[in-house]
Amino acid sequence: MTQETPQQSATPVAGGRLGQRSRWLAAFATGAVLTAGAYGQYKEAAEMWVNNEFQPSAITVAEQMEEMEWFIQASAPYRGMEINVLSETIPTHEYESEVLTTAFEEITGITVNHQLLGEGEVVQAVQTQMQTGRNLYDAYVNDADLIGTHSRLQNAVNLTEWMAGEGSEVTSPTLDLDDFLMPEAGQGPNGDQWQLPDQQFANLYWFRKDWFDREDLQQQFQDKYGYELGVPLNWSAYEDIAEFFTEDVQNIDGTRIYGHMDYGKRAPDLGWRMTDAWLSMAGAGDKGLPNGRPVDEWGVRMEAGTNNPQGASVSRGGATNGPAAVFAIRKWDEWLRNYAPPEAASYDFYQSLPALATGNVAQQIFWYTAFTANMVAPQSEGNNTVDADGMPLWRMAPSPAGPYWEEGMKVGYQDVGSWLLLNSTPMDRRKAAWLYAQFVTSKTVDTKKSHVGLTFIRKSTVNGPSFTERAPRLGGLVEFYRSPEMKKWTDTGVNVPDYPKMAQLWWQYIGNVNAGNMDAQEAMDRLAEELDVVMARMEAADKAGNVYNGWGPRLNEPRDPDYWFNQPGAPKPKLANEKPQGRTMAYEEIIQQWQ
After folding, report:
1. Which residues contact 422 (CB under 8 A, 6 or more apart)?
2. Global pTM?
3. Which class does domain 3-201+415-485 fall in?
4. How far is CA 248 from CA 212, 216, 225, 252, 299, in A?
5. Which regions of the chain carry the CATH code 3.40.190.10?
6. Chain-centre distance of CA 33, in angstroms?
7. Measured between alpha carbons, how far is 254 from 325 in angstroms, rounded to an integer?
8. If DSSP codes are grouped into helix, strand and coil, which group holds residue 343?
């Protein structure tokens, strides 16, 4: 049977790290060539997908086909395999699971079972595979929040080494890490890439601009509070606005409205609600990006120049139970009880965010842009926050900062769901999964995927003409991701040495506050103590067997908290006035700043 080599181009695909020709030659050297009939079958499938589903794109059709032809060739040794991958359930991953798996199979011959579960279940599966060494899944889309874990335990594949070594022949020449918005989210303390972003979304401030623009409400607010109704810049203004809509306005167009939305169900996602930079937004940590040093947004201390966490409790130099953190938890509880719809206290993450579409809430301080897709649905699908033409009545803006916050600190949190390969996965399955991970993040696919899920990962996508055209319908999302300000929203950093073990503690103690079993100070004292206990065990294991690559915790000895309060930065002593004058800004001015 004759063999056919596809027509090769002398011009590498735009943005590629290596020439396409050299990559194909490397593939052929490993025997990854196809018969004429097989190549034609897969190329025909690629043409069909490129010319239909994968439009628009940030690259030309010719460049898309060149990229797909590399996938056809690189996948030849793994054709006929069936692999399993796991991610959380959000619209972006639903599109991957329902559409892109079919495209990938038709173009490469590799079948992918892309399973969707809740984020807590994904973390549990990752943790189980790391602990047991059993290959449960061949790849995961796992939050880059675990970067401190993966770079220490080293059960994960170091992608920097992988792409240059064992995985080089299955690493796309057009991967183009420089085109990713935040590749650093998946980088360990030494800058190596451990995870590859697949989707990302920020927590921003969300508000009903149509209500805020009403002259009668503007005048009422001005009369009561002495400043203009607008996007709140601090928590004082947010609280005033929440009170105003809940207690003064009360009804709009016959609907009972509220000035705040959140969630409080005792479940793992309640922990994310706090670890996703809530303490940092209040100002509990230190200055620095992507996360504060020495104290991060969890309140964990890790001195500059070291990769060894030193404690979470104030007595050890941490800030998890410091005044700023306690203030943050107290305000979350007060606002949930006083200004949110009564049912919000029993909502979880997945119930709270889409609930905004009912149209009875004026603002939300902590809103994940992953749910933008829900908020741009038409009125016919029950979305009461768009007009008859589908234009949003709401906007997104930066979340306001708490009284302990200082310029130079991170502004908020950005979730970067990222591809993870584990060492326990057999080599052939790992390589096939790596091909799929690159396929669903490729320039050929990414623009269309981003139009579906609205969770941008590539500069070329968000800066492309199709999103310039769509931007007015997305309430500020495109402007945010085009702005250099976006870098001030970051994920959990490397101060957290074992995310799965430590994250599960948060929701248990925060849940006690919502249940009325503990006040904020008691809950955070207990939480900080438990975090230190976990890190102490890690320290012992690391010293005994180098379990954490020598980067395990090295806890400070407890000292009088006043010692740390008298040092510069975090932990910060209690402010005499935790509610300064409210400050707001017109939305149009914020957009100008973003631009």
Report:
1. 126, 129, 130, 135, 140, 155, 156, 157
2. 0.90
3. alpha beta
4. 14, 12, 12, 11, 37
5. 3-201+415-485, 202-264+326-401
6. 38
7. 39
8. helix
Look at the domain 202-264+326-401 and name its fold. Answer: D-Maltodextrin-Binding Protein; domain 2 (3.40.190)
Task: In whole angstroms, give the CA distance from residue 410 to residue 33.
Answer: 49
Strand partners, 414: 202
Summarised one tens digit per residue, pLDDT across range 303-320 is: 988 999 999 999 999 999
3-state secondary structure of 252: strand
Name the residue among 412, 377, 441, 348 with its Cα closest to residue 87.
Answer: 441
- Give the Cα-Cα-Cα angle 90, 202, 211 (nearest 5 degrees): 95
Is the distance from CB of 13 to CB of 67 less than 8 angstroms?
A: yes
User: What is the C-alpha separation between 581 and 237, in angstroms, rounded?
Assistant: 8
pLDDT digits (tens, 9 = 90+) for 453-484: 999 999 999 999 999 999 999 999 999 999 99
Give every residue of the chain whose pLDDT is below 70, as ranges.
1-37
Q: Is residue 183 reached through a cis peptide bond, with omega within 30 degrees of 0 on the bond before it?
A: no
| Helix ranges restricted to H, 322-441 | 323-339, 349-352, 372-375, 427-440
Return all residues near 138 (Cβ < 8 A) that are at least 6 apart: 83, 84, 85, 425, 429, 430, 432, 433
Whole-Å CA distances, 507 to 136, 204, 296, 329, 531: 26, 21, 19, 12, 13
